[in-house]
């Protein structure tokens, strides 16, 4: 199955799940919720939260009822804030899990590295609306210039760096151990004997416990080491060596690779890839593919606006976070389809570069229209909406210039999103 079919399949699977009675029952916070028909039921509430909200909440609600639902009535932002408390954030995790299954089980075009699914685990800090409730729920950071407490959360994801798909994600209290989150991500991975896993991790992760967990789970890894980790076991004169580490009285063999960057800074990697045909340069090239997860966080924060929360309760933060992760994967599937269309259109033209969809235009084009496709029962009309989006986006493709340096992603100053002030919520 091609990626276009993957998008269509993912969309249909999502539609079926959202309309499923069992899905509703398992993802409402009380059996008494959504038992009566109202202005905004379970399905409508889910779809509204998937509509990439970027304006004031009341404006978005009015638009949702008028443009998408084709209704003259609406609800207040207070009523929506009450409604969303009835939905478990796990609903969005389940939606994402399903489309990830579609990609890897039913699509034959996804990329592998030497027959491995190449993923990276990395964490990031999420800026939250700075309320006392959220500081208590998620924790906070102190301003470096003053003793001002700023609400923050820690997030992490398992990201397929070749296919640009978020396989698993987590949001936790601020400064939760990266290793702890990584262990949970690994434990929740769906084990598929047909897929060989290879995970890249940066220098905040290595420990004998995590390494033993990965080895026992038959997962391959490449981790960057801090200079003081396993220092006594590593021979400083060897650039490629095997060492032994111990955890819970069990001994594990790992391979240690050392090399210098152009800046003369030494990098040390640890791995359970023992293939002798893989040389130091191969590991160097492999590890730097981890940069894809940094780019994904940049997209999530600055294009999808994952920190632009629409509520000020713990449940609202988790809903918005996991909804954004799901949307990022749907957008990636649509982007792959658009790229293929652009490629076909340029087959007989002399072009210097390959072209990719303009992500901002793609996101803007899917706003409202994605939800309309979920609501449309007629397959021909649904396909017409999608075709119009793809034609518009493919015309706006931009060139990919090779060998461009990736600057380190800069942190955005706090207070980037202000509209949260306008969100009225009784659950403070």
From TrEMBL:
Keywords: DNA recombination, DNA-binding, Transposition
GO molecular function annotation: DNA binding; transposase activity
Pfam families: DDE_Tnp_1
Transmembrane as UniProt keyword: no
GO biological process: DNA transposition
Transposase IS4-like domain residues: 114-327
InterPro entries xrefs: RNaseH-like_sf, Transpos_IS4, Transposase_11
Highest taxon listed in the record's lineage: Bacteria
Family indicated by similarity: Belongs to the transposase 11 family.
NCBIfam families: transpos_IS4_1
Protein's name in the database: Transposase DDE domain protein
Protein source organism: Clostridium magnum DSM 2767
